[in-house]
Amino acid sequence: MGKRKIHKVNFILVLYLLAFCTCLLGKNNKGTIDLYPIKPKIIYGEGIYVDEEEGGPLLLENLQTSNHIKDNSGIDYSIKSARGGLRTQAWCMHGNGKGEWFKADIPESEFYLDRGIRNIYRILIQNGLVANKELYYANNRVKTIEIEFSEGGKRILHLNDGDLEFQYFRINIKARWFKMTIRDVYKGRKYNDTCVGKILFETMEHPNEMSPEKRKRYGYE
């Protein structure tokens, strides 16, 4: 009888320990969400296609980066090249890229008048130097990015390799500024430089503020 009581007490202690550990893990990961590329909904018609979920472009200001290649080639490898332009342009850094970052503010002109904040609906990333496949695989490409936001919360983006087109990540987080940090990369075959082709941002009404019909249409219900 005594042994049964001991076993019962031990079992209860194990349950309490598991619950305690789970609670700790939950707190450590609070606000952090892992995201993988999604496929946008496409509508075809008259030889063209439209992204049904496309938001409006989000303007940025005070763009800062920790590093970019500066050489005598005349090519701009700064973050400006990742904000638009040709496929031959990219934000490139010497080295494996780990720990390098990009920070930007959302200008007041983009804020909601009554809230002083803007929803970052979606991020589009064209990974690597995509001028051609040879250059793409010759240089490092980004594998994992961590994003911190002004109002708290983090997003971890996991990028696919071998994809030379845009990869879409639905974020839906309100912020005044953000900071993207490279955490891991796919190694290049020839060079130890790291490149990101394009980083674009879209804004749209936050799901919590949508009508039930609109939430359902965009797949939030």
General description of the model:
The protein has 221 residues and is an alpha+beta fold. The radius of gyration is 22 Å and the shape is globular. The strands form 2 sheets. Strands 1, 4, 5, 6, 7, 8, 9, 10, 11, 12 and 13 form an 11-stranded mixed sheet that branches. Strands 2-3 form a two-stranded antiparallel ribbon. The protein is built from 3 helices and 13 strands, in the order H-E-E-E-E-E-E-E-E-H-E-E-E-E-E-H. It folds into 2 domains: 1-30; 33-217, Jelly Rolls. Mean pLDDT is 85; it is low at 11-28. Strand 9 (140-149) and strand 10 form a beta hairpin. Helix content is 18%, strand content 38%. It has helices at residues 2-28, 133-138, 212-217, and strands at 32-35, 42-45, 48-51, 56-57, 61-65, 91-94, 101-105, 118-127, 140-149, 154-158, 166-175, 177-186, 193-203.
Short descriptors:
221 residues, Jelly Rolls, 2 domains, eleven-stranded mixed β-sheet, two-stranded antiparallel sheet
Element-by-element helix/strand order: HEEEEEEEEHEEEEEH
The dominant shape is globular
Distance between the termini: 53 Å
Q: Averaged pLDDT, please?
A: 85
Question: Topology, pairings included?
Answer:
Elements: H1 2-28, E1 32-35, E2 42-45, E3 48-51, E4 56-57, E5 61-65, E6 91-94, E7 101-105, E8 118-127, H2 133-138, E9 140-149, E10 154-158, E11 166-175, E12 177-186, E13 193-203, H3 212-217
Parallel strand pairs: 1-10, 9-13
Antiparallel strand pairs: 2-3, 4-13, 5-7, 6-13, 7-12, 8-11, 8-13, 9-10, 9-12
Short description:
18% of the residues lie in helices and 38% in strands. The protein is of the alpha+beta class. The protein has 2 domains: 30 residues; 185 residues, Sandwich (Jelly Rolls).
